[in-house]
Design a protein that fits this description.
Number of helices: 4
Largest sheet: 5 strands, mixed
Helix content: 25-40%
Strand order of the largest sheet: 1-2-3-4-5
Strand content: 25-35%
CATH architecture: 3-Layer(aba) Sandwich
Distance between the termini: 47 Å
Radius of gyration: 15 Å
CATH class: Alpha Beta
Structural class: alpha+beta
Number of strands: 5
CATH topology: Aminopeptidase
């Protein structure tokens, strides 16, 4: 049986689902009040697009997409910041539907590129992103303080 999924923009009522999703994604319980403040700030930024996938009014997936003008691209680029599909709903094409919406947004706003980074511990994501049309073209270095 195919899961009927709708995609829509995230609203304030989705905070709890997004919080639980990101905690699961990061495998840690994040400070809720700080999370809420960042969520509200990001929701108010018109350069960001937050989408939720839901089935029967229940969240099953989420993607956040931030855009900015970059000098070295001489234009606007977008980066997927968070991308989560509920474990019991993975492999059902929900992620592909969310990415398709991001691609449509990128085309509508004439973005130069779409970027995504994945943690090295999530080795399965490289194949997933390649299957979605992404190319592994860069290395990303970080310093945690």
């Amino acid at each position: 049986m195919k899961l009927k999924v709708g995609i829509r923009k995230v609203n304030q009522q989705d905070l709890d689902f997004i919080y639980k999703s990101i905690c699961e994604l990061e495998n840690e319980e994040l400070h809720f009040e700080l999370f809420r403040a960042i969520f509200n700030e990001n929701m108010g930024n018109t350069n960001n697009l937050y989408l939720i996938a839901e089935s029967e009014n229940e969240g099953v997936g989420f993607i956040s997409f931030h855009t900015q003008n970059l000098l070295h691209h001489c234009g606007r680029v977008g980066e997927i910041q968070e991308f989560f599909i509920n474990e019991k709903h993975r492999g059902k094409g929900i992620g592909r539907q969310l990415i398709k919406k991001i691609m449509q947004y990128a085309e509508e706003y004439k973005l130069k590129s779409i970027e995504v980074t994945t943690n090295r511990r999530r080795v399965e994501n490289v194949l997933i992103y390649e299957n979605l049309g992404f190319t592994l073209s860069h290395n990303k270095f970080t310093i945690y303080k």
